[in-house]
């Protein structure tokens, strides 16, 4: 389903968004053009390790973050991984009470699916 470029690109986008950076801000921090970063995030270009290390530093992520779950990329769609990343970001912004409520809602949806 997803290839290596797409997986790493999605993780770069996730790290950037989690840090609260725009593409322009991250591109500036790593010394790359916005178009280059956009191509990386969309999986159009595979970044080198040096650039990935700069991205890791700018987003406060360990290098391994960009490779986590890579073995699953052939099994799930990009759309699903993007949705899972968005859920993680949303969960971080919720209050404890709302997070617990969201967890209960998801558990109920999972039970209904069975």
UniProtKB/TrEMBL annotation:
<feature type="domain" description="HTH cro/C1-type">
    <location>
        <begin position="12"/>
        <end position="66"/>
    </location>
</feature>
<keyword id="KW-0238">DNA-binding</keyword>
<dbReference type="InterPro" id="IPR001387">
    <property type="entry name" value="Cro/C1-type_HTH"/>
</dbReference>
<protein>
    <submittedName>
        <fullName>Predicted transcriptional regulator</fullName>
    </submittedName>
</protein>
<dbReference type="InterPro" id="IPR010982">
    <property type="entry name" value="Lambda_DNA-bd_dom_sf"/>
</dbReference>
<dbReference type="Pfam" id="PF01381">
    <property type="entry name" value="HTH_3"/>
</dbReference>
<dbReference type="InterPro" id="IPR050807">
    <property type="entry name" value="TransReg_Diox_bact_type"/>
</dbReference>
<dbReference type="GO" id="GO:0005829">
    <property type="term" value="C:cytosol"/>
</dbReference>
<dbReference type="GO" id="GO:0003700">
    <property type="term" value="F:DNA-binding transcription factor activity"/>
</dbReference>
<dbReference type="GO" id="GO:0003677">
    <property type="term" value="F:DNA binding"/>
</dbReference>
